[in-house]
């Protein structure tokens, strides 16, 4: 009995006490929740509540200043220049032939495509003739099979004879199906060849470089024997009045129209102009899925042809969060603001900024509407400071 008591006192009880201590049952318990942050120093700073505002939704695209009706006349064909009909300083009329490129390879493609269409036409004629005969054979075999089937029911012919006739009927049907399948293949092939021919004719038209409008040859970029490349200008035609030209995405083809007023920002001279669109291409360039617009610029001696800028087109309205520049603090390479909580305590909050609008900065992410922030004097704020 004493050994049992000794075992309980010196072994069981100490282990139980150790387990309770490990489990935290012998220590004072801390209720769950967040510890209150110790407020540092109090700093009185102006604050503001962030709210989204409606601003113009714009589309911006690169462009350049050009002469009025200025055009870089190029081709979409890679070919040798065989003939040039003009020189620098010559006046030209719209549609006038300026240069001729070597289109011998394209002519060969057109010839092959036309020959292919002729072969397909003959093959179709033969197939249709064969189909007519095959359908007649199938119809005859089917009638014969129906007749033999009735005779078989009357025991006038053997089952083997009936099966032979049925086999012939099935063969005739298979022949009809095969010819129809061949006709479908010929149809598909014909579509392919016609598409190839259409494409070849389009490419052939690029071998004849013509003036897009009345004007003067400002610069001749190539000579006879040079290799013309797609997109590389052969001539530059234009006059003295200035426009701004951009290649606008095809999604805006029905949004941008002649007569619309747009903004043109010329970064070289740090100026912004109101310009009216006077030209718009109604065709889409298949190479880059864009269309060309030209906006007339006001007279300004600071403007020079070739200057880089941005065309700004209003496409509607959208809500954005805008905050003053004075509310932003730089944290290394990052941007941040001080967010003020319900107790008036400031906390550093990192944000992602966008463009500047009317002296304010767009916040792309990191701030929600209704959030209170320090609006200025952020250099005096600190993490955990009471600011109001």
From TrEMBL:
The chain crosses the membrane at residues 7-26. Gene3D superfamilies: 2.40.30.170, 2.40.420.20, 2.40.50.100, 6.10.140.1990. It comes from the Bacteria. SUPFAM superfamilies: HlyD-like secretion proteins. GO terms for biological process: xenobiotic detoxification by transmembrane export across the plasma membrane. One of its GO terms (molecular function) is efflux transmembrane transporter activity. Pfam families: BSH_RND, HH_MFP_RND, RND-MFP_C. Residues 70-236 form the Multidrug resistance protein MdtA-like barrel-sandwich hybrid domain. This is RND family efflux transporter, MFP subunit. It comes from Persephonella hydrogeniphila. The lineage of its organism: Bacteria, Pseudomonadati, Aquificota, Aquificia, Aquificales.
């Amino acid at each position: 009995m004493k050994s049992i008591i000794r075992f309980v006192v010196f072994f069981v009880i100490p282990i139980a006490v150790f387990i309770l201590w490990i489990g935290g049952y012998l220590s004072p318990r801390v209720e769950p929740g967040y510890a209150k942050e110790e407020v540092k120093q109090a700093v009185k700073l102006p604050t503001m509540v962030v709210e989204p505002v409606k601003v113009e939704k714009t589309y911006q695209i690169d462009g350049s200043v050009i002469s009025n009706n200025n055009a870089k006349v190029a081709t979409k064909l890679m070919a040798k220049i065989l003939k040039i009909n003009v020189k620098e300083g010559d006046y030209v009329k719209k549609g006038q032939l300026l240069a001729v490129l070597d289109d011998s390879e394209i002519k060969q493609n057109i010839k092959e495509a036309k020959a292919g269409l002729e072969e397909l036409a003959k093959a179709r004629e033969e197939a249709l003739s064969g189909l007519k005969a095959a359908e007649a054979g199938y119809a005859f075999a089917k009638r014969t099979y129906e007749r033999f089937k009735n005779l078989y029911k009357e025991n006038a012919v053997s089952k083997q004879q009936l099966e032979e006739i049925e086999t012939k009927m099935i063969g005739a049907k298979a022949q009809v199906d095969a010819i129809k399948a061949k006709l479908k293949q010929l149809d598909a092939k014909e579509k392919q060849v016609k598409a190839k021919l259409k494409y070849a004719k389009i490419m052939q038209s690029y071998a004849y470089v013509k003036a897009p409008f009345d004007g003067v040859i400002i610069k001749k970029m190539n000579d006879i024997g040079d290799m013309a490349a797609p997109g590389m200008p052969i001539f530059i035609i234009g006059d003295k009045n200035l426009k701004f030209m951009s290649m606008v995405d095809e999604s805006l083809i029905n949004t941008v129209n002649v007569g619309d007023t747009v903004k043109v920002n010329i970064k070289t001279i740090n100026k912004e102009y109101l310009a009216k669109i006077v030209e718009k291409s109604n065709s889409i360039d298949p190479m880059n899925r864009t269309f060309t617009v030209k906006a007339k610029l006001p007279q300004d001696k600071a403007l020079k042809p070739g200057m880089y800028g941005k065309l700004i087109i209003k496409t509607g309205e959208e809500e954005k969060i805008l905050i003053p520049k004075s509310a932003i603090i730089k944290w290394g390479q990052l941007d941040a603001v001080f967010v003020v909580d319900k107790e008036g305590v400031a906390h550093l909050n990192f944000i992602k900024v966008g463009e500047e609008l009317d002296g304010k900065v767009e916040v792309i992410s990191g701030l929600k509407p209704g959030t209170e922030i320090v609006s200025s004097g952020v250099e005096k704020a600190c993490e955990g400071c009471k600011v109001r």
